[in-house]
Every structure is written in C-alpha cells, then in structure tokens.
Amino acid sequence: MGIESALGEGYLTTKIDALTNWARANAAWPMPMGLACCAIEMMAFAGPRYDVSRFGSEVFRFSPRQSDVMIVAGWTTYKMSHAIRRIWDQMPDPKWCIAMGACASTGGMHRCYGVVQGVDNFLPVDAYISGCPPRPDAVIHALMKIQDKIKNEHSVLLDT
Amino acid sequence: MSLELTESVQKLVDGLTESYSEKLIEVYNASGHTYIRVEADALLDIVKFAKEEYHFIFLSDIIGVDRYTSEERFEVLYNILNLRTQDRIFLKVRVPEEEPVLESLFSVYRSANWLEREVYDMFGIRFNNHPDPRRVYMPDDFQYFPLRKEFPLLGIPGSIELPNTTPDTE
Ligand code: SF4
After folding, report:
1. What's the whole-model pTM score?
2. Is the CB of B160 less than 8 angstroms away from the CB of A78?
3. Burial, B133: exposed, middle or buried (Cβ in 10 Å; 0-12, 13-18, 19+)?
4. Highest mean pLDDT: which range of A49-63, B9-23, B77-91
5. Which of A14, A32, A130, B33 is the least buried, fewest Cβ under 10 Å from its Cβ?
6. pLDDT for res B5
C-alpha cells in the first residue's frame, strides 16, 4: 500500500515545507500531562468513541523524546510546575502545547496559593480549551487548531 | 446540657476524671461526637492512658484550628477511635500563638507522623520529638503557613518559585 500504487509511474511535486507540515500535522503525538479530572476526558479523546486516531494523534507517548504536543490536563501546583517544565524542555522542537480546561488555562476554581493560575505562566501555550471539564471533542478541536497552525508554518525555509 | 456518652466513652471519661482530674478542662457533646479538652502538657500521658487502658488504638486524624484573635490562638484536635466498640472521641488542646509547640504522639500512634507534619505545614505548630518534621505539601523553603487566617487566599506573590522559562541557549 505504498504511495507508488496510487501514483503509478507518475511524479508528485510539492514544496518541501508543505510536505513536512503535512507529515507533522497528521502525526502530532501527544504528551499526556494528566494532573486531575480533565485527564479522564483526555483519555476518552484517545479512546474508540472519539477516536483521535483519525488525526494521527492516538499515540500517547509517555516519553517526552517522542512527542510533539503536550496536553496539560488539570490544575498545576507550583511544585508540579517544575516537573512539567522539565518534561516540556525535554521534548524535541518543534512542539506545541494545549492547556486543557479551566484549571490549566486560568487556575479555574482553584483560586488559591498552591495552584498556578494558568500554565501560560511557565509554558508557551498554543491552544486553550474552555470548560470544566471540556468534552473530548473540544480537545479534538484544539488539536485541529494546532494542525492548522502547523500547516501554516514555515518549517524548513526561513523567509529572512 | 446533660452528657449522653456511650458506655466505653463514659468509662474513659470516668477514668480520666480519676487519674487526670486537674488536666481535664471540659467534656461536651456536639454534632453527635464527644469532645474532651485537656491541658496541652498532659496530652501525651492522656493519649497513652486512653490507648492502653481503654483500647482507643486508632488515631484517625489530627486537625489544626486557627482561632484567630482569641487567646490561645491555635487548637489541635486528635480524633481517636476505640476499635472494639467503634467509639470515636476528639481530644482537644490549645496552644498559644507565640510558642506553638506540642509533644508529638508518634511514640503512641505511628499515624501521627504524617498527620502532625500536615498540621505543621499548614499552621506552623511544631511537634517535639517528631521523627521527621518536614513539610508535606508546600516546598521545603516556603516561609509561610497557608491555613493561618492572615495568609492571603492567593498566596504571597513570588513566595513560591515558578520554573525557569528561558531555555539554555548555546
Ligand atoms: S477544569 Fe474542571 S475537570 Fe478540568 S481539572 Fe479543572 S476542575 Fe477538573
């Protein structure tokens, strides 16, 4: 089932940027950062009902070395933030970040001394998902937004 | 209000009245539970007595209370159970604000270890002879005690460090 069978003897011409972005966008492997209740919805997002396999993102890597998208699901304490940031730093570039749910985005109802009021205090977040918890389809929506973002990036050539 | 005590609690109260009458401050019922307030310096002896003579062998919880602006600002409740009769009592002691120190119950109940650490972490009440007096929830170098009433709900800005967000550049 290689690409040869579809193209026969023909050619395919494209920009290397477009090809790389197409590949990246359709294989955005998530790094699950399940910290609280939202993590359960994040699991459903990878499960058969919502089936994020369709987007090439069902491969939850528990190793930061092989992941592209970090999904921070749940409230983050100051103590935990250091572990999260370390994992983020271990992920290879290019990488993207989803703040899933009210807590990860803003601290949510955990308006207290121990919880970081939004993970964007220490992570560069690409997509925020509202809700408490957000439905798995909202997570898929965020993933699609990130796919759009990837597709519009210059990944190889720099336009200096 | 007359006290309605179960048989084993009644026995304990009688025993305490006999042996520690000058250390007992009050005994009362509230919300279906029995509270016994005692002098802080006799706490360890009383707890040992309750455990050995009256089978209150299970320390289920230790609760700190901040009675802000009252005299003897802090109160600590020890929730202990008699596992034969399932009777539960709360022993209470008060400690002053300037010198909030109590004896550790670790020598009597092993579960006191984490419970006392938690009370220390949140209220800053110290426990003498505790085997491992570190904080539980807050970072080790944190200087405040979050459940004290004067501590702001959102914490003190900058008192806990966030990770460094400037990656090392080559
Ligand atoms: S947003 Fe709601 S569901 Fe998600 S971690 Fe916070 S409290 Fe839990």
Report:
1. 0.80
2. yes
3. middle
4. B77-91
5. A14
6. 82
Q: Is B158 on the interface with A (CB under 8 A)?
A: no
CA B23/CA A37 separation, integer angstroms: 47
In sequence order, the 6+-apart residues with CB closer than 8 A to the CB of A142 are A98, A100, A127, A128, A129
Tell me if chain A has a CB within 8 Å of the CB of B163: yes
pLDDT attached to residue B123: 93
pLDDT single digits (tens) B36-68: 999 999 999 999 999 998 899 999 999 999 998
Q: A120-145 pLDDT, tens per residue?
A: 999 999 999 999 999 999 999 999 99
Contacts 24+ apart (CB under 8 A), B28-33: B28/B1, B28/B3, B29/B1, B29/B3, B29/B4, B29/B5, B33/B88, B33/B89, B33/B90
- Which residue out of A75, A100, A106, A139 has the highest number of ligand 1 atoms within 8 Å of its CB and is therefore the one to mutate? A75
